[in-house]
Amino acid sequence: MRDERLVRDSRFTPAVGLLVAMLDECRARTLSHLDDLGVPMIDAEVPGHPNTIGTILYHVAAIELDWLYAEILGEDFPEETAVWFPVDVRDDTGRLTPVTGESLARHRERLAWVRGLLHDGVVRLDDAFLLQDRPTDGGTVTSEWVLHHLMQHEAEHRGQIGELAQALRT
């Protein structure tokens, strides 16, 4: 059953629009977890957790950008990418590269920039494109699956952000 509370943009085809509305709802929930955090909390390390909130936010944005351009659009990253992502998302060992010293506003701006690219990119898609197989290094995916995966990925990291914020408040 569709949730009619989701705000759908008429620029998109019905299926694309529904997925974009779900992505935007997921992002709104993530951003609501950040409302009362300051820079000290964003960069604070919590024992038993390998990443800070800032590092997770950077990662969420980077992964959305990567899946959008590599798997859905099949295009090169925009020139501005280096401005928003000055370091690789992972270090040489495969761990997330620590991202510190950025304001909450900068993290929000990065997330918004990537989401704007997603909106601009998928507005070109039709519903049939969502179901077309796209080859990847590990097999094939559809754009529909990628958009679902991005929601799931962000939701899981939102849970981590909530855990970290709770630990920092106690």
Q: What is the name of the CATH superfamily?
A: dinb family like domain
Q: Based on DSSP secondary structure assignment, what is the total number of beta strands? A: 2
- With strands numbered from the N-terminus, the spatial order across the biggest sheet is 1-2
* Structural domain tally: 1
Beta strand %: under 5%
Spans of at least 5 consecutive residues whose pLDDT stays below 50 are none
**Rg:** 16 Å
Instruction: Give the helix level as a range of percent.
Output: 55-70%
First CA to last CA: what distance?
39 Å
CATH topology category name: Four Helix Bundle (Hemerythrin (Met), subunit A)
Largest sheet: 2 strands, antiparallel
Look at the structure and give the mean pLDDT: 92
Which second-level CATH architecture applies? Answer: Up-down Bundle
| The top level CATH class name | Mainly Alpha
Shape descriptor: globular
Which class best fits the helix and strand makeup?
Answer: mainly alpha
Q: Helix and strand string, N-terminal first?
A: HHHHHHEEH
Count of helices?
7
Write a structural description.
This protein is mostly helical and 170 residues long. It has one domain: Four Helix Bundle (Hemerythrin (Met), subunit A) (Up-down Bundle). It is built from seven helices and two strands; from the N terminus they run H-H-H-H-H-H-E-E-H. It has helices at residues 14-32, 39-43, 53-73, 81-84, 104-122, 127-130, 143-169; strands at 133-136, 139-142. Strands 1-2 form a two-stranded antiparallel ribbon. The protein is globular.
Structure summarized in a few sentences:
The chain is mostly helical and 170 residues long. It has helices spanning 14-32, 39-43, 53-73, 81-84, 104-122, 127-130, 143-169; strands spanning 133-136, 139-142. The mean pLDDT is 92.
